[in-house]
């Protein structure tokens, strides 16, 4: 496993740990950094935060943008929230 992959995996996990204990700003910082490097799971995670208003102001249109990126790249778990936004 490459160092880059391991570092990204660790950042995603650290973000989810922060998220589960309610430290949404910390999760957002970690995931935004990864998303800026085209990390698909981070795109989904940022969209999730925005969709539910955790760590960001609730903004479903902005969440839609974040969900589109991994959706187009085949990340399956982004399809459900993506579909719910499209049908509204």
Low-confidence residue ranges: none
**The CATH C-level class name:** Mainly Alpha
Put simply, the count of helices is 5
In CATH, the topology is named Serine Threonine Protein Phosphatase 5, Tetratricopeptide repeat
Q: What's the CATH superfamily, by name?
A: Tetratricopeptide repeat domain
**What helical percentage do the residues reach?**
over 70%
- Class from helix and strand fractions: mainly alpha
- Distance between the amino and carboxyl termini: 41 Å
Largest sheet composition: none
Total count of domains: 1
Provide the CATH architecture. Answer: Alpha Horseshoe
Work out the number of β strands. 0
Question: Layout of helices and strands, plus pairs?
Answer:
Layout: H1 3-20, H2 24-35, H3 40-52, H4 60-72, H5 79-86
Helix pairs in contact: 1-2, 2-3, 3-4, 4-5
